[in-house]
Amino acid sequence: KAGVTQTPRYLIKTRGQQVTLSCSPISGHRSVSWYQQTPGQGLQFLFEYFSETQRNKGNFPGRFSGRQFSNSRSEMNVSTLELGDSALYLCASSLGSGEQFFGPGTRLTVL
Amino acid sequence: QQQVKQSPQSLIVQKGGISIINCAYENTAFDYFPWYQQFPGKGPALLIAIRPDVSEKKEGRFTISFNKSAKQFSLHIMDSQPGDSATYFCAASMRTTGTASKLTFGTGTRLQVTL
Could you say which of A32, A87, B63, B89 would form a disulfide bridge with A38 (CB–CB 3.0 to 4.6 Å)? Predict the structure, then answer.
Protein backbone atom coordinates (compact mmCIF):
# COMPACT_ATOMS: atom_id res chain seq x y z
CA LYS A 1 0.00 0.00 0.00
CA ALA A 2 1.23 3.47 -0.79
CA GLY A 3 1.81 5.70 2.22
CA VAL A 4 0.52 9.16 2.96
CA THR A 5 1.59 11.67 0.35
CA GLN A 6 1.83 15.41 0.81
CA THR A 7 2.34 18.13 -1.76
CA PRO A 8 4.21 20.29 -2.16
CA ARG A 9 7.18 19.23 -0.05
CA TYR A 10 8.57 22.75 0.24
CA LEU A 11 6.98 26.17 0.01
CA ILE A 12 8.26 29.70 0.42
CA LYS A 13 5.72 32.47 0.90
CA THR A 14 5.75 36.05 2.12
CA ARG A 15 3.78 37.55 4.99
CA GLY A 16 0.18 38.25 4.18
CA GLN A 17 -0.10 35.63 1.46
CA GLN A 18 -2.19 32.49 1.72
CA VAL A 19 -1.18 28.90 1.12
CA THR A 20 -2.89 25.58 0.41
CA LEU A 21 -1.33 22.26 1.29
CA SER A 22 -2.56 18.90 0.06
CA CYS A 23 -2.64 15.44 1.60
CA SER A 24 -3.59 12.08 0.12
CA PRO A 25 -4.22 9.44 2.80
CA ILE A 26 -3.50 5.75 2.67
CA SER A 27 -6.05 3.98 0.51
CA GLY A 28 -9.09 3.06 2.59
CA HIS A 29 -8.36 5.53 5.39
CA ARG A 30 -11.18 7.96 5.98
CA SER A 31 -9.60 10.08 8.71
CA VAL A 32 -7.05 12.77 7.95
CA SER A 33 -5.43 14.84 10.68
CA TRP A 34 -3.13 17.81 10.36
CA TYR A 35 -0.31 18.78 12.72
CA GLN A 36 2.11 21.68 12.91
CA GLN A 37 5.69 20.95 13.99
CA THR A 38 8.01 23.72 15.13
CA PRO A 39 11.19 23.68 17.22
CA GLY A 40 9.56 25.85 19.87
CA GLN A 41 6.08 24.35 20.18
CA GLY A 42 6.74 20.79 19.04
CA LEU A 43 3.98 18.78 17.41
CA GLN A 44 0.57 20.38 17.75
CA PHE A 45 -2.77 19.10 16.51
CA LEU A 46 -4.56 21.39 14.06
CA PHE A 47 -7.71 19.51 13.06
CA GLU A 48 -9.10 16.19 11.89
CA TYR A 49 -11.48 15.39 9.08
CA PHE A 50 -13.48 12.21 8.84
CA SER A 51 -15.83 11.49 5.95
CA GLU A 52 -15.64 15.12 4.75
CA THR A 53 -16.58 16.54 8.18
CA GLN A 54 -14.32 18.25 10.67
CA ARG A 55 -14.44 15.97 13.69
CA ASN A 56 -11.87 17.58 15.98
CA LYS A 57 -10.12 20.92 16.18
CA GLY A 58 -7.02 22.14 17.98
CA ASN A 59 -6.27 25.57 19.41
CA PHE A 60 -5.29 27.45 16.29
CA PRO A 61 -6.72 30.73 14.95
CA GLY A 62 -9.36 30.78 12.25
CA ARG A 63 -6.69 31.58 9.65
CA PHE A 64 -6.05 27.85 9.63
CA SER A 65 -8.76 25.90 7.86
CA GLY A 66 -9.17 22.66 6.04
CA ARG A 67 -11.47 20.46 4.09
CA GLN A 68 -11.79 16.89 2.95
CA PHE A 69 -13.05 15.60 -0.34
CA SER A 70 -15.18 12.56 -1.08
CA ASN A 71 -12.06 10.56 -2.01
CA SER A 72 -10.65 11.35 1.49
CA ARG A 73 -7.96 13.66 0.13
CA SER A 74 -7.59 16.71 2.32
CA GLU A 75 -6.38 20.25 1.92
CA MET A 76 -5.24 22.70 4.54
CA ASN A 77 -5.31 26.45 3.99
CA VAL A 78 -3.55 29.17 5.92
CA SER A 79 -4.57 32.72 5.15
CA THR A 80 -2.76 35.98 5.94
CA LEU A 81 0.50 34.22 6.64
CA GLU A 82 2.64 35.32 9.58
CA LEU A 83 6.32 34.69 10.21
CA GLY A 84 5.36 32.34 13.05
CA ASP A 85 3.53 30.08 10.64
CA SER A 86 6.87 28.80 9.35
CA ALA A 87 6.79 25.13 10.25
CA LEU A 88 6.64 21.57 9.04
CA TYR A 89 3.00 20.72 8.38
CA LEU A 90 2.27 17.05 8.77
CA CYS A 91 -0.70 15.08 7.63
CA ALA A 92 -1.66 11.75 9.19
CA SER A 93 -4.23 9.25 8.09
CA SER A 94 -6.03 6.52 9.96
CA LEU A 95 -9.00 4.23 9.74
CA GLY A 96 -10.44 6.39 12.53
CA SER A 97 -9.73 4.39 15.67
CA GLY A 98 -6.27 5.40 16.80
CA GLU A 99 -3.28 4.29 14.74
CA GLN A 100 -2.11 7.22 12.70
CA PHE A 101 0.39 7.15 9.86
CA PHE A 102 2.19 10.33 8.96
CA GLY A 103 3.27 11.71 5.63
CA PRO A 104 6.67 13.34 5.01
CA GLY A 105 5.31 16.82 5.62
CA THR A 106 5.34 20.14 3.83
CA ARG A 107 8.04 22.56 4.92
CA LEU A 108 6.55 26.08 4.85
CA THR A 109 8.83 29.08 5.13
CA VAL A 110 7.26 32.51 5.55
CA LEU A 111 9.51 35.47 4.72
CA GLN B 1 -4.59 18.58 31.74
CA GLN B 2 -3.77 17.74 28.16
CA GLN B 3 -0.02 17.73 28.68
CA VAL B 4 2.34 14.85 28.09
CA LYS B 5 5.75 15.40 29.66
CA GLN B 6 8.73 13.62 28.12
CA SER B 7 12.28 13.14 29.38
CA PRO B 8 15.15 13.27 28.80
CA GLN B 9 15.42 15.90 26.09
CA SER B 10 18.48 14.17 24.68
CA LEU B 11 20.17 10.86 25.25
CA ILE B 12 23.51 9.36 24.24
CA VAL B 13 23.81 5.58 24.41
CA GLN B 14 26.59 3.26 23.33
CA LYS B 15 25.92 0.66 20.68
CA GLY B 16 24.42 -2.42 22.30
CA GLY B 17 23.13 -0.50 25.29
CA ILE B 18 19.57 0.12 26.46
CA SER B 19 17.87 3.42 25.66
CA ILE B 20 15.11 4.46 28.03
CA ILE B 21 12.72 7.36 27.40
CA ASN B 22 10.03 8.31 29.88
CA CYS B 23 6.69 10.04 29.58
CA ALA B 24 4.09 11.15 32.10
CA TYR B 25 0.54 12.27 31.46
CA GLU B 26 -2.08 14.09 33.49
CA ASN B 27 -5.38 13.33 31.83
CA THR B 28 -6.70 9.98 33.05
CA ALA B 29 -9.06 9.87 30.07
CA PHE B 30 -6.13 9.11 27.77
CA ASP B 31 -6.39 5.49 26.68
CA TYR B 32 -4.04 5.10 23.75
CA PHE B 33 -0.28 5.69 24.00
CA PRO B 34 1.84 5.44 20.83
CA TRP B 35 5.53 6.08 20.30
CA TYR B 36 6.83 7.65 17.12
CA GLN B 37 10.32 7.75 15.62
CA GLN B 38 11.33 10.67 13.42
CA PHE B 39 14.43 11.00 11.26
CA PRO B 40 15.52 14.42 9.96
CA GLY B 41 13.47 15.50 6.97
CA LYS B 42 10.89 12.76 7.49
CA GLY B 43 7.50 12.51 9.11
CA PRO B 44 7.06 10.61 12.38
CA ALA B 45 6.76 6.84 11.98
CA LEU B 46 4.63 4.77 14.33
CA LEU B 47 6.88 2.42 16.32
CA ILE B 48 4.73 0.75 18.91
CA ALA B 49 1.60 1.58 20.89
CA ILE B 50 -0.09 0.41 24.08
CA ARG B 51 -3.51 0.62 25.68
CA PRO B 52 -3.88 0.94 29.48
CA ASP B 53 -5.25 -2.55 30.01
CA VAL B 54 -1.74 -4.04 29.67
CA SER B 55 1.43 -3.17 31.56
CA GLU B 56 3.96 -4.07 28.89
CA LYS B 57 4.13 -4.57 25.15
CA LYS B 58 7.14 -5.79 23.23
CA GLU B 59 7.86 -5.64 19.51
CA GLY B 60 11.32 -6.75 18.54
CA ARG B 61 13.87 -4.58 20.34
CA PHE B 62 11.21 -2.05 21.39
CA THR B 63 9.23 -2.38 24.63
CA ILE B 64 6.64 -0.09 26.18
CA SER B 65 6.18 -0.27 29.93
CA PHE B 66 2.99 1.25 31.27
CA ASN B 67 2.18 2.23 34.85
CA LYS B 68 -1.45 3.30 35.05
CA SER B 69 -1.42 4.28 38.73
CA ALA B 70 1.62 6.52 38.28
CA LYS B 71 0.33 7.82 34.91
CA GLN B 72 3.67 7.06 33.34
CA PHE B 73 4.89 5.05 30.38
CA SER B 74 8.30 4.47 28.92
CA LEU B 75 10.02 3.20 25.81
CA HIS B 76 12.94 0.81 26.11
CA ILE B 77 15.16 0.16 23.11
CA MET B 78 17.25 -2.94 23.69
CA ASP B 79 20.58 -3.50 21.92
CA SER B 80 20.54 0.07 20.61
CA GLN B 81 22.07 0.52 17.16
CA PRO B 82 23.45 3.59 15.35
CA GLY B 83 20.48 3.31 12.98
CA ASP B 84 18.21 4.01 15.97
CA SER B 85 19.62 7.54 16.19
CA ALA B 86 16.54 9.70 15.74
CA THR B 87 14.04 11.79 17.67
CA TYR B 88 11.43 9.84 19.59
CA PHE B 89 8.03 11.19 20.56
CA CYS B 90 5.53 9.76 22.98
CA ALA B 91 1.89 10.66 22.51
CA ALA B 92 -1.53 10.07 23.98
CA SER B 93 -5.12 10.27 22.86
CA MET B 94 -8.64 9.35 23.90
CA ARG B 95 -10.61 6.81 21.92
CA THR B 96 -13.83 6.89 23.84
CA THR B 97 -14.74 10.52 23.20
CA GLY B 98 -14.36 10.36 19.43
CA THR B 99 -11.01 12.10 19.62
CA ALA B 100 -8.80 9.10 18.96
CA SER B 101 -7.01 10.95 16.18
CA LYS B 102 -6.21 14.00 18.32
CA LEU B 103 -2.76 13.06 19.51
CA THR B 104 -1.11 15.06 22.27
CA PHE B 105 2.65 14.73 21.85
CA GLY B 106 5.54 14.90 24.25
CA THR B 107 8.37 17.31 23.47
CA GLY B 108 10.64 14.65 21.96
CA THR B 109 13.92 12.96 22.85
CA ARG B 110 16.89 13.14 20.55
CA LEU B 111 18.68 9.80 20.77
CA GLN B 112 22.23 9.35 19.60
CA VAL B 113 23.72 5.87 19.55
CA THR B 114 27.50 5.90 19.41
CA LEU B 115 29.84 3.18 18.18
Answer: A87
